[in-house]
Amino acid sequence: MKLKKLTLASVLAATLPFGAQADNIRIGVAMAQFDNNFLTLIRQAMQAKVAELEGVEVQFEDAKTDVGQQLQQVESFVNQKLDAIIVNPVDTQAVAPVIKRVQEAGIPMVFVNLKPEVALPDGISYVGSDSKVAGVLQMEYVAEQLGGKGNVAILMGELAHESARDRTNGVEEVAAKYPDIRIIAKETGRWTRKEGMDVTSNWLLSGYEIDAIVANNDEMAIGAIMSLGPSRVKKVIVGGVDATPDGLAFLDRGMLGVTVFQDAKGQGTAAIDTAVRMARGEAVEKEIMIPFELVTTDNYKDYVGRN
């Protein structure tokens, strides 16, 4: 299958084609999927960073949530003898073949946003955030708004992603501190608005009495809000993660109760910075962590335009 490519060069001589300058740093980026709002923000941040740099080129590939396709894309980067590779993994538990291939080729690699569930060897770094912290911040606020009692349902992201499991663990850890808070439902919404809406509709049709819905991201939270409708959403606290433009818009309308800012620009920029430094042979940290921040109706305006 012919894969769609998006290529960008920051500064090129007018008479030379893409990649013709031998001393350029060439970076290949394999994204888990282009059709994801938050990952799109990360990709745009990478593009913007490269546009600021001289002598750096980047090539993007869309794995379309296919582990095998992503491995093929990394193989292509290796065969092109690129200087560094960035991977946003499709499955954080299935990265061993990718790691093995880039190690064999001696090409430095950066994982971004989703953290591999293996120890990273030399020459490989991770740029992202501590997903459990997002769940803790989110649920602490929800528990406070509930007055320490109520029924909570959890919308999880893709179960193959450590971020979904870790955010959920953070939520459950906080909920366990409150004897009168019960988690009555937990199901994957696969990070999407539609799935979040469908799962919530099923809960409502099943007769669940829900006081709060805690979603692993804003898209699923918005889906839950759409399913609840104008009348029920006033009685249910809905929380998300990411503080996307759409998420902030729902906060502004009083429909989303809370979100947690995940810095897409920070992750995308740091991923490019790290890859460039590694390509130059410079020392980098094994993990570059970008902090999460709680966003409520009191401070959401401070986050407009940051993602």
Automatic annotation (TrEMBL):
Transmembrane segments: none annotated. It is found in: Cell envelope. CDD domains: PBP1_rhizopine_binding-like. The keyword Electron transport does not apply. Residues 1-22 form the signal peptide. The keyword Lipid biosynthesis does not apply. One of its GO terms (cellular component) is cell envelope. Pfam families: Peripla_BP_4. This is Rhizopine-binding protein. It comes from Zobellella taiwanensis. The lineage of its organism: Bacteria, Pseudomonadati, Pseudomonadota, Gammaproteobacteria, Aeromonadales.
